[in-house]
Design goal:
Elements (H helix, E strand, L loop, with lengths): L16 E9 L2 E9 L24 E8 L6 H21 L1 E3 L2 E11 L4 H13 L4 E3 L4 H14 L2 E4 L5 H5 L5 E3 L4 H14 L5 E6 L3 H16 L3 E7 L8 H10 L3 E5 L2 H13 L5 E4 L6 H7 L7 E5 L9 H11 L6 H20 L4 H9 L2 E3 L4 E3 L10 E8 L2 E9 L4
Parallel strand pairs: 3-5, 3-6, 6-7, 7-8, 9-10, 9-11, 11-12, 12-13
Antiparallel strand pairs: 1-2, 4-5, 13-16, 14-15, 16-17
Helix pairs in contact: 1-11, 2-3, 5-6, 8-9, 11-12
Length: 415
């Protein structure tokens, strides 16, 4: 008997909306969940709840949290990551989990942080109150950094499948891990590619002032200068703006070969259109996390030529991709975002840590996770002493005919 089927039916071209609101009042944290499922949702598949705060609370159930954007502009990737984590939990339950001779079931407690740091702190406190062993999340570096002290104080494991800021693992919390590279490696390798492969000599950077976007843009600029390119301008915008006119008007005077953007996919799509509308000749290189349908849908034909360096090999080159795609498709009525794989591996890492430790004590589980080495969907998963992924791989993608095409693959961190 296979794992249970879950109907998210969000499809990036769909409109299902799932909102989770977390609030703190008088030292108590409560959550209210509202789920809207469109009429065309497949009836044979059940929903994955956004909040699981009742039932399965007996002493034979162990909880793992998920925190990410289940509503808003980043909803598509958030729901796909949630599905990935849920699939890992379902498969573990199918296999069975025994600790000290007793059988346990796992449950996933999911929360919507809306990719908002303020909400993320409330979500973290809620999940701590649900006595989760570990959390798969959060999506952005800003939300992850706000939540990290909450998890650390409570002794909860945090494994992010997507937050790249080097600041996160440099906190030296012993229970923080990530299943992707940090932004130092991504920024340096992206800059090396731009200078060596594209022949870029002049660059302008634009960032969204977040720990992720700003940190990535700064690292890109440093490496570009180290490789002999000139950085003509460095600009910052709000992470909520859709107006890039001011930095682009300045960039038009400078005529750079390339514009590097540190920020999320939805803004990158707007930026791509603005670059062409203002008739800049510069190519756009956007941040990791941009590969996917949201960017293409926002940018349209103006997406062509855009470049993004993403973690991991191309999906069809991942060792476990074929089986993962089949199992995912059998369980969820949705497209598979690239980061669903890394969320699946993040949940797997927590579960494997529980098995190896023979305990549900997060302290013992985290110690076991530092010794883990297993074959995930994307390749070998193992962590260094700070919790960063060992021996990461990367893929450079380019938009050709409004489709993402892998153009080069890299192994290991740049020197």
């Amino acid at each position: 008997m296979g794992p249970p089927r879950h109907g998210m039916s969000w499809l990036r071209r769909g409109s299902a909306v799932l909102l989770t609101w977390a609030a703190v009042a008088a030292m108590a944290v409560t959550a209210v969940n509202a789920l809207s499922t469109p009429a065309w949702a497949a009836p044979a598949k059940r929903d994955v709840p956004a909040v699981t705060d009742e039932a399965d609370s007996g002493d034979d159930t162990l909880a793992i949290g998920f925190a990410g954007p289940l509503s808003g502009a980043s909803m598509a990737v958030g729901r796909s990551m949630q599905n990935g984590a849920q699939l890992a939990v379902d498969e573990a339950n199918q296999r069975g989990l025994r600790i000290a001779g007793k059988s346990y079931r796992l449950k996933l407690v999911s929360q919507d942080d809306r990719a908002d740091p303020g909400t993320a702190e409330y979500v973290a406190r809620y999940l701590v109150g649900q006595r989760v062993i570990g959390v798969v999340g959060h999506w952005t570096s800003g939300t992850s950094l706000v939540a990290a002290p909450v998890y650390h104080a409570a002794g909860v494991i945090q494994v992010t499948p997507s937050a790249m800021s080097r600041k996160l693992t440099s906190l030296s919390y012993p229970r923080i891990f990530r299943t992707i590279p940090n932004n130092e490696g991504v920024g340096r390798l992206a800059a090396d590619y731009a200078i060596a492969r594209l022949g870029v000599k002049t660059v302008v950077t634009i960032d969204d002032r977040t720990p992720f976007g700003q940190g990535l843009a700064e690292q890109f600029a440093r490496q570009a200068e180290a490789q002999g390119a000139r950085v003509l301008g460095r600009y910052s915008v709000s992470d909520k703006t859709s107006d890039f006119n001011a930095p682009l008007m300045e960039a038009r005077k400078q005529a750079p070969d390339l514009i590097f953007f540190g920020g999320l996919n939805w803004q990158a799509g707007i930026l791509a259109k603005a670059i062409r509308r203002l008739k800049l000749e510069a190519r756009l290189m956007a941040s990791a996390g941009t590969v996917g349908l949201p960017f293409l849908m926002r940018a349209g034909a103006d997406a062509n030529g855009a470049l993004v360096l993403e973690p991991g090999p191309p999906q069809d080159r991942m060792p476990g991709w074929k089986g993962f795609r089949q199992r995912y498709s059998q369980s969820f009525d949705s497209n598979i975002d690239l980061y669903a794989v890394f969320a699946y591996e993040a949940a797997q890492a927590i579960i494997q840590g529980i098995r190896q430790a023979g305990s549900s004590d997060p302290e013992l589980v985290a110690r076991a996770m530092h010794r883990l080495r297993f074959e995930g969907v994307s390749g070998t998963v193992a962590f260094n002493e700070e919790g960063d992924l060992l021996n990461p791989t990367f893929t450079m993608y380019e938009v050709k005919d409004q489709r993402w095409v892998p153009v080069e693959r890299f192994s290991g961190l740049p020197r």
